[in-house]
Amino acid sequence: MAYIRKVKTASGAIAVQIAYSAYGKVIKIEHVGSAHNETELAMLLEIAQKLKTKQLSLLDPAAAELDIVIERSVSSVLLETLANHYEMLGFNEIDDPVFADLVIARLVEPTSKVDSIRVLAELGATGLNNTAIHRCLRRVISKDYRDKLAKLCFARASRFGDLTLVLYDVTTLYFEVQQEDDYRRPGLSKERRLEPQIVVGLLVDRNGFPLELHSFEGDKAETKTILPVMEAFRKRHGISNLTVVADAGMLSQTNLAELSRAGYGYIVGSRLHKIPYDISQYQKKDNLRDGQIFTVKAKVEGQKVIYQYREKRAALDRRNIAKQIAKAENIVKGKAPVKRSKFVKLSATSSSRSLNTELIDKALSLVGIKGYVTNLNIPAKQVIAAYHELWHVEQSFRMSKSDLKARPIFHHKQEAIEAHLTVVMAALALQRNIEAVSGVSLKQLVKVLRPIHSGIVSIEGKEHKAKPRITLEAQELLNRLNSAH
What we know:
By secondary structure, this protein is an alpha+beta fold.
């Protein structure tokens, strides 16, 4: 009688064996192989089952002592899936297999360009080396892959929506170096860092799909980045009627005037320094209602300011103010060290501290109120709805910084950094597309598909292809992804 058994080894692996028994005792054990993960285990169990069904003769030692070796196993399903979607977006028109490999590697396991060789080998992509990577990065710049990529992204986004309204935001990427240069400079950091940095501007559609990515010197003011990016976008695609939505960081009258002169519509968040006159007058006779809107003609011609009160926002504002007041009270009472606190008033002539009640009252008067500045002649609710789509570009930045790890950047020259950002932009587009089609995050997709291995098994010196065992979860995911083709 023969049966298959699994035995845990001292190294932690699982040994798959075919045991032969007679009269209740094991008389022969045939070792099939040792598995280090679930995929290899499934592969060995399948091989053992085939061997068992052949009913190898116990009297034939040569047959019982088969030499079975797993030569290699790779995550080919994940590689093929990502490569298919790369082609689906038309990125294969760039016609650079090394660039495609770098984009796929960044999606699977963001790491340095050199370590990407290991990642790709685990997926089944071989032949890549350090020299090929650096030659590719030079081609990214010399052949202007960013321009080709932007046009392909625009073509994809155009199929799914109107691109006359786009979303814009900026972030900063710092470098762990002390020596600045003409490109990497200290500036106003989003992460409150002091190291040299660069400023990155990202333009996306309403769904967060990337359209333009530009980098600027680290000390470049945010407000001076939006117009160059918009001009590049309009020139590249020949769009005349274009509106941009941006947060309050872009709000400067000089900036808005330049956008208007250039023929752009805009919707920008407004910082509130005091309660708007119209709202204060209304509050004298009645309480604000949830969702209530006030539209005010601005001092600048052709511009208007829209204010909206939301009870949900007011509740959040009150909670945050309460925390800040509690922190300030502890500082005033000496229960907490003197740190920068919004509601603490320090005496200029003594060391005394007190609560800044005027500032507290002012903050409480503004709870729940959000302002929006625009030069568009459209309903206020439409302006507010457009602005609230900004979370898509913020999410895209989070994805590029966390999932795709845009930094740390292992490059020093500006051209290499720009090439790296082009890889990140392509990876972000691929990630956005996959998540839109599948309904699952990139992280979940990699988690489900990466363990599914195919490989080569050597039996008695002869190589055999081992097909991947697709789980039900993986098959359902693949079906959703393939339905998009």
